[in-house]
Automatic annotation (TrEMBL):
Stated name of the protein: Uncharacterized protein
UniProt cross-references to InterPro entries, sorted A to Z: Kelch-typ_b-propeller
Pfam families according to UniProt: Kelch_KLHDC2_KLHL20_DRC7
Leader sequence residues: 1-16
Lineage: Eukaryota, Metazoa, Spiralia, Lophotrochozoa, Mollusca
Keywords, alphabetical: Kelch repeat, Membrane, Repeat, Signal, Transmembrane, Transmembrane helix
TM ranges: 315-340
Amino acid sequence: MKSMLVMCFAILDVWAQEVAWIAGSPASVSISSKIYPGGRSGVGIWQEGINNVWLFGGLGISDNPFESPRLLNDLWYFNGSSQTWHQVHQGAVFDSTVVEYRSSQIPRPRQLSAVCGAGNIMVVFGGLAEEDLALGDLWVFDTVTKEWQSQEQAYNVQRNKSHIQPGQPGVYGHLGMPTDYNVPGCRKGGVTWTDANNYLWLFGGEGCDTLTPSDTSSSVLLTDYWCYNTLIGRWEWIGGSKEGNKPPIFRQKGKLTYSALIGGRTEAAAWKKNDNAVYLFGGMGHNGTQYYCYLNDLWLINISETVGLGVPFPVLYGFGLVFLGIFLVLCLVVIGVYVYDCSKGNRTPEWRLGSRDIARYRHLLGNDS
Ligand SMILES: *[C@@H]1O[C@H](CO)[C@@H](O)[C@H](O)[C@H]1NC(C)=O
Ligand SMILES: *[C@@H]1O[C@H](CO)[C@@H](O)[C@H](O)[C@H]1NC(C)=O
Ligand SMILES: *[C@@H]1O[C@H](CO)[C@@H](O)[C@H](O)[C@H]1NC(C)=O
Ligand SMILES: *[C@@H]1O[C@H](CO)[C@@H](O)[C@H](O)[C@H]1NC(C)=O
């Protein structure tokens, strides 16, 4: 029955899914009004619960009918119950001669920013500003007080001031160790999701890795994962490579492994399978031999481990030192035996180990040993 219906629809040239036009202008050029956002692409969007959606910026048309499309920084709220848009605030025309744009209380205009949220906090990170500048600033919007705050204001953290500027490299620190100074490199097109602990995840995008770019246009495809803790306002590098432009490493199909690597990419899509796993699909990125390919690879990411290696770094470091110590002592024993063996001079030296051999050479080491 259903297939017959679908066939009829196909003959009548209608689509098999029900679709309703809710609102918005049928015209191609549509400016913003107080109650409706203007035409745009590259928006940042966050769905708070079922009914509330927040939309920030993008590239498109402002409320000025005489202006050509530009980067926007207006904020909109979509009420899912009434299906209506509300302008939370208008954008401001960005004055690039004012370097410290942060001093004003709205993030500067941008598209392709990474937007995510938890509780009543929406976080906007980076994006692409005018003149193709990749951004790395973080802003917090409180949906209750309707106020924007920069990361420093919201969490009173000491940030590396250079990251207020576009085109800055990431400060990765150690895997799984959050600090006030860690910050992902400036980027556009990173993909985000929220885990069961209300940590915001950021993966990839196009921008800066650990290196200071030689010029503002030299960007790389990123493969790094970051977690942002909205309670303390700290970034934690939790996986992927510090280095950009990495090709994918596929390994065995369908098997979760630490040795596979999602290739560097921007503007991928991600959605949650459940609280422990996320799917990641496509994007524009590295296919193994070439950058900037349209990708259709699908990955599954185990996100149940949000603290990197799961072992505090000092503990890991301590174990490392103990093993290094044992290794050095063994080396010394072997070299000691070898050297004394040489000193006999009457036969070819041999590698020897073990208490029996050491006993054999005891007379050479001296009677006190
Ligand atoms: C959303 O719309 C519903 C139905 O019109 C209304 O009752 C509710 O107060 C609105 N919510 C907000 C946050 O404006
Ligand atoms: C701040 O960032 C710059 C450039 O990324 C880096 O050289 C410097 O070490 C950072 N400072 C701190 C305190 O992290
Ligand atoms: C990557 O894409 C290029 C261009 O489409 C193609 O020539 C190349 O074979 C691809 N590499 C792989 C590993 O698929
Ligand atoms: C995901 O990682 C957690 C923690 O290491 C592990 O317990 C779990 O088994 C993993 N999930 C799968 C499907 O392998």
